[in-house]
Write a structure and sequence with these properties.
2 domains; 496 residues; alpha+beta; 12 helices
C-alpha cells in the first residue's frame, strides 16, 4: 500500500491522535527507528510530518516539547527577513565624500554609510572586490588619487551588538562565531597561512582573497592559541599568541572583533592597489557625521532571495545574524537577541513562548528553544504565502545534491528540500518533502546525542521507511547491491 493510500486511513482517524509520544501512531516501523535512536543515544527526539494540502498532521511525536534547534533557527530568521523586507530587497551602502578637492587630492574623507549588509566581499559570492572597484571608479570620475582624511564609516543607528551573549566560549574564537555589525566584510574573518619553525613564525593574511600586510607577535609553543588584531597604526593585521612548531602554510580562519575597522583596512589596501592612496586610518562615526557630504553613488547588494539561499544552503551564521540584527530597531541592536524575528512569528502565528524562544538568529546558541509544532507552523505559513512560497522553497538545498544536506542519502524516489542543523549533542532537519507529486512539511530534531552522525543515519532511514517500505535492493549499498553488480559482470562476460 502506498503512502498516499495509507494517508486516507491515517487522516480518517487523525482526530483521535493527540500530540503525545505515548499515543498510538501510524507508520510504527518508521517511528521505531526514532525510538531506537533515543534508546541507544539516551536522547530525546521529536518529529512532525504534516500534509500541506489538508494541513493535517500525519505523524507527531513530542511535537509540543521544546528542543535546541541549532541551525534550524535560520528558517524563522530568513522567513521573517523575507516577509518583512521582500524578495527583491537589496542592502544599500551610500558612498560619498566631504572636504575640499585640490587637483587629484581630496583634503577630507571618503564616507560610507552602514546598512548591515552581510555580503560585502563575502566568500559566498562572486566578485568579492566589487565594492572596492565601484568606489575606485567613482573616485576616478572625480579625478581623486589621494584622500588625506582617511575613510569614515557612518554607523549611526548600528551599535556594536554584544558579542555572542548566549554562545559557548569556545565558539567565540572560531570563524563561524564571528560577530556582526552595521558594516561587515568577508564574513568577518581573515584567512591566515602560518609557517613556523623552532624560533620563527611567518604569517600571510588575506581578507576576501586580498593580501593584507601582516605582522606577528607570537612565540613557538606546544599548541596554537592565537588572536587577531590590528597594529597600532591600523595599517596591518597583527597575529599574536602561541603557535606550535612545524606548521607549513597551515590555514586558519580568524574572526574580527570589530568588523568595521577591518573593512577600513581592506578598503585602504584595495584602493591602494587601484592607484588611490588613503593616508590615515579609518574613523568610525557613531554619533554625528560632522559636516555635509557629497553623494557619489550607492553600492547595492544581491537580492534578498539570493542572500537567504546562501544563508540556508550554506548555513552561513553571519548572514543569519546580520538579518536578525537589521530587523531589530536601533535600541534592540545593542543585544544579540533576535527580538524582531521573535515578535514577528509570535504575533503572526500566536506561538507560545514555551515553544519558541530564540536566543540568536543563526542557532549557534545552545540555549534557544523551538518545538517541532512551532517550526511546522512557520514552514506552513511560508508555504501558503503566495509572496514567500517560491523564494523560500528555492532557498532550501535539495537533499543528496547540494549544500549542507548533499551527503544525506534518502531513497532516490523521494525529493526533499531541507535545512540541516547541528551543534554539540544536537542534530535536526526541517523543510519540505515531495512524494508522488504530493507535498509535506517535515521537522525532525534530536537533543542529548552522544553521536550526532547516528542521528543523521537514523533520520535518513526514517524518511525512507516512511515513504518507501521496503526500499528496493538497488538502494542498499551492502551485499545485495554487490551481488547485483557481480551478476551484471557475469552476464556481460557471457555475452562476449
Amino acid at each position: 500500500m502506498t503512502l498516499r493510500s495509507q494517508l486516507f486511513l491515517a487522516l480518517f482517524f487523525s482526530f483521535l491522535l493527540l500530540p503525545y509520544a505515548g499515543q498510538a501512531q501510524p507508520y510504527p516501523k518508521a517511528l521505531e527507528v526514532l525510538r531506537l535512536l533515543e534508546k541507544k543515544q539516551g536522547a530525546r527526539v521529536t518529529v512532525l510530518l504534516t500534509d500541506l494540502e489538508t494541513q493535517t498532521p500525519i505523524i507527531r511525536y513530542r511535537s509540543e516539547e521544546s528542543f535546541c534547534p541549532a541551525s534550524l533557527m535560520k528558517i524563522p530568521t530568513t522567513g521573517a527577513f523575507l516577509a518583512l523586507k521582500g524578495a527583491d530587497y537589496r542592502f544599500q551602502t551610500p558612498i560619498g565624500i566631504r572636504g575640499q578637492l585640490s587637483g587629484d587630492t581630496l583634503h577630507g574623507q571618503l564616507v560610507l554609510g552602514a546598512s548591515g549588509d552581510p555580503s560585502l566581499a563575502s566568500h559566498y559570492i562572486e566578485h568579492r572586490g566589487r565594492l572596492v572597484s565601484e568606489i575606485a571608479s567613482l573616485l576616478q570620475r572625480w579625478g581623486i588619487r589621494r584622500v588625506t582624511g582617511g575613510i569614515a564609516l557612518d554607523l549611526q543607528g548600528f551599535p556594536t551588538p554584544s558579542l555572542g551573549e548566549y554562545w559557548p566560549d569556545e565558539d567565540l574564537n572560531e570563524y563561524y562565531g564571528a560577530t556582526v555589525s552595521g558594516m561587515n566584510v568577508a564574513d568577518n574573518y581573515a584567512d591566515l597561512y602560518l609557517t613556523s619553525s623552532a624560533d620563527t613564525l611567518q604569517a600571510e593574511g588575506f581578507i576576501a582573497s586580498l593580501e593584507i600586510p601582516t605582522a606577528t607577535d607570537a612565540f613557538v609553543s606546544t599548541s596554537t592559541q592565537l588572536s587577531l588584531d590590528l597594529t597600532s597604526h591600523e595599517d596591518s593585521l597583527l597575529v599574536s599568541g602561541a603557535v606550535r612548531e612545524g606548521l607549513d602554510m597551515r590555514h586558519r580562519r580568524m574572526p574580527f572583533v570589530d568588523p568595521p575597522l577591518y573593512l577600513g583596512l581592506w578598503l585602504r589596501e584595495g584602493l591602494r592597489k587601484q592607484g588611490i592612496e588613503v593616508l590615515v586610518p579609518t574613523t568610525l562615526l557613531r554619533d554625528s557625521l560632522g559636516g555635509p557630504i557629497d553623494t557619489l553613488g550607492v553600492y547595492s547588494s544581491l537580492r534578498a532571495d539570493t542572500l537567504i539561499r546562501i544563508t540556508n544552503c550554506r548555513s552561513a551564521n553571519v548572514y543569519a545574524e546580520a538579518m536578525a540584527y537589521v530587523l531589530n530597531d536601533s535600541l534592540q541592536r545593542k543585544s544579540s537577541l533576535p527580538v524582531a524575528v521573535r515578535d514577528y512569528w509570535q504575533k503572526r502565528l500566536q506561538l507560545p513562548e514555551s515553544q519558541f524562544t530564540p536566543m540568536d538568529g543563526s542557532g549557534l546558541s545552545p540555549h534557544g528553544r523551538l518545538s517541532s509544532q512551532a517550526l511546522s507552523l512557520v514552514l506552513r505559513a511560508l508555504w501558503e504565502d503566495k509572496e514567500l512560497h517560491a523564494p523560500f522553497l528555492a532557498s532550501l538545498p535539495e537533499v543528496g545534491k547540494e549544500g549542507t544536506v548533499r551527503r544525506l542519502q534518502i531513497h532516490p524516489s523521494i525529493t526533499a528540500y531541507m535545512k540541516s542543523g547541528s551543534i554539540r549533542g544536537v542534530r535536526g532537519y526541517a523543510g519540505y518533502v515531495r512524494w508522488k507529486e504530493h507535498w509535506y512539511s517535515l521537522v525532525f530534531m534530536a537533543g542529548g546525542l552522544r553521536d550526532t552522525s547516528e542521528a543523521r543515519v537514523s533520520f535518513a532511514r526514517f524518511v525512507s521507511e516512511l515513504f518507501v517500505a521496503p526500499p528496493p535492493a538497488k538502494y542498499h549499498r551492502g551485499k545485495v547491491a554487490k551481488r547485483g553488480k557481480a551478476k551484471q559482470r557475469t552476464l556481460r562476460r557471457r555475452k562476449r
